[in-house]
Automatic annotation (TrEMBL), chains A, B:
Annotated GO CC locations: cytoplasm
Function field: Catalyzes the reversible formation of acyl-phosphate (acyl-PO(4)) from acyl-[acyl-carrier-protein] (acyl-ACP). This enzyme utilizes acyl-ACP as fatty acyl donor, but not acyl-CoA.
Organism: Pseudaminobacter soli (ex Li et al. 2025)
Protein name per Swiss-Prot or TrEMBL: Phosphate acyltransferase
Subunit description: Homodimer. Probably interacts with PlsY.
UniProt pathway: Lipid metabolism; phospholipid metabolism
Catalytic activity of the protein: a fatty acyl-[ACP] + phosphate = an acyl phosphate + holo-[ACP]
Single GO molecular function: phosphate:acyl-[acyl carrier protein] acyltransferase activity
Highest taxon above the source species: Bacteria
Family: Belongs to the PlsX family.
Any Pfam family: FA_synthesis
Compartments, as annotated in UniProt: Cytoplasm
EC number(s) stated in the UniProt entry for this protein: 2.3.1.274
UniProt-listed InterPro entries: FA_synthesis (IPR003664), Phospholipid_synth_PlsX-like (IPR012281)
Length: 355, 355
């Protein structure tokens, strides 16, 4: 049985999108149960529409809902312990749920997740990992916006976290990993990226197959399974790709409705276009996974529909089923066992640590 | 008459692509003349294929060609004063040409351009500006990889440089400008980006209409005419967009050849697909303009064909014709006249400067 906690108040549409998504997931996965948090007056009517949910949903009323434009500090001030977002995260902490899904605002969700779940022992900062459709299948790209900037050690942490996710998600033993940079030659790029590359090359046997630097166009090509970068460049890359896909979709629509011949062609090729649209459907890849925390939290896109929110739930489900946290912890242990603590950030406390 | 100097040895294909491009440009613009630099034994045979070029091309032999994998320092050591790349740039410096075009390696071309032409008086670092096709038309995006990182003052310089280019290229009086960031709220993002935003807001009347922060998906949407960022994120955004376009092109090809119905549909809609392909054709937007130097240098993509190289030449031509450098200098003067020098980088030398 996999138990998922749900913040029903997040996203642009709230329970109207979240609750139907639960039904969609339940029809596809029989061993799922939900703990849902939200305001009784808006969630209960939605729940009542789907009698099938009665057996698999446990509902808890919360007075407070974090708003989409709340700053993280505001959200923590007003929403700690009492908001649907906090309580959904807290359900993971206290063992009532295996993973938490919210379409609420990213900054607030990350702040609350850090505050409530805490980062893993050797991890400085969590990252947000996206699943990126590629020509070869899918890749994991992180960080796509949890924090701005990252030093070499944090980039190495991201590489380990992303490796764990790729192993859990794609069922591969030793995913290939690349550091996003502006050129494949060793001479180029930021010092942090170069240093991280050196650390990864020297790290000895790990669960990852480090392949060196990759460039922006390697992401869509699927050159590596895991693309590692800091949150500023990662967020810009993700949004730029989304924008480009939308732009080409517009071009295509315009081209196909321009002439009678094109319209006829469109009718003949309609199933091909449907296939293409499915391939380009961002809802299928919906869900940013928060990595580096003592618990699984998945952020759904705020503007998505029920199918998109269901995809985010299923992502969380898969992460639980495939033991994401165990894999990450094993990889971190392996890495830190091989690296003397003196060369890591924790130098000063090395003697006091639990070694 | 507009005179363009050409490094015939750059790019993956050298003179075989460069020389036919000259003819393509000459058939479209009657007032263009070329000064071509390269090795006699490979350039002359190409020139001889096109008798029409005899009247408008002046050829100079150079012993040395910068290699595509030369590091900037190597290129400077072996190629200064003697290589086709250097001499093409130098032709701009000594007034023999109005702009220089090369498909040679970016690092070497930038290093030589800086060394030979020098940066403009108040400019710290040059930038590379790309023309980005958008849903609304085209935008200028910079820096796409001249240097990694940029402080607030450099970002402001880039905004002014990009404004000058947009004015010259699109013929608009007051282009809209945005700073690339990871969120539109004022609280997010890098300190440098926030500080640059503040400087631009406070700058008073300028030739630009500063619109605040934009995100990755705003680039393709055409939200602003000029998108400003530092070279790491800019390069990653550009390459990610190119990769995404290629990826979707692949999807489309695969979808259209999958079933008989789709193939028939493709035949009917062929002209629409041709139109789409033209829209997505990266050759049309080929050419990175080096901004902030005392001269116009355009970098063509190394792997392009004659049509792509011709587009880079025409970009240089348009920049000359529309007085890019005059516009930039006027904008810089306006900006610095309104800003007391004490708040710029040059504080210490303000009294010794030529004011």
């Amino acid at each position: 049985m996999i138990r998922i906690s749900i913040d029903a108040m997040g996203g642009d549409h709230g329970p109207a999108v979240v609750i139907p998504a639960l039904l969609a997931v339940a029809t596809r996965r029989s061993d799922v149960r939900f703990v849902v948090f939200g305001r009784e007056d808006v969630v209960r009517p939605e729940l009542n529409k789907y009698p099938k949910l009665a057996d698999i949903v446990e509902f808890h009323h919360c007075d407070v809902a974090v708003r989409m434009d709340d700053k993280p500090s505001q959200a923590l001030r007003h929403g700690r312990r009492v908001s649907s977002m906090w309580r959904a995260i807290d359900a993971v902490k206290n063992g009532e749920a295996d993973a938490c899904i919210s379409a609420g605002n990213t900054g607030a969700l990350m702040a609350m997740s850090k505050f409530c779940l805490r980062t893993m022992a050797t991890i400085d900062r969590p990252a947000i990992a996206a699943i990126w459709p590629t020509m070869r299948g899918e890749s994991v790209v992180l960080d796509v916006g949890a924090t701005i900037g990252a030093d070499a050690h944090q980039l190495v942490d991201f590489a380990i976290l992303g490796t764990g996710m790729a192993r859990a998600l794609f069922g591969m033993e030793r995913p290939t990993v690349g550091l996003l940079n502006v050129g494949v030659e060793e001479v180029k790029g930021q010092e942090e990226v170069k240093d991280a590359g050196r650390l990864l090359r020297e790290a000895g046997k790990m669960a990852m197959d480090y392949r060196g630097f990759v460039e922006g166009d390697d992401i869509g090509r699927g050159t590596v399974d895991v693309v590692v970068t800091e949150g500023f460049a990662g967020n810009i890359a993700l949004k730029t790709a989304e924008g480009t896909a939308r732009q080409i979709g517009e071009y295509l629509r315009a081209a196909m409705s321009r002439t009678l011949m094109a319209k006829i062609g469109y009718l003949f090729a309609k199933s091909a276009f449907t296939r293409l649209r499915e391939k380009m459907d961002v809802r299928r890849a919906n869900g940013g996974v928060f990595l580096g925390l003592n618990g699984i939290v998945v952020k759904s896109h705020g503007g998505t529909d029920a199918e998109g929110f269901a995809a985010a739930i299923e992502l969380g489900y898969d992460m639980v089923r495939n033991r994401l946290l165990d894999r990450i912890e094993a990889d971190l242990d392996l890495f830190h066992a091989r690296r003397p603590l003196s060369s890591s950030r924790s130098t000063e406390f090395a003697d006091d640590s639990n070694e």
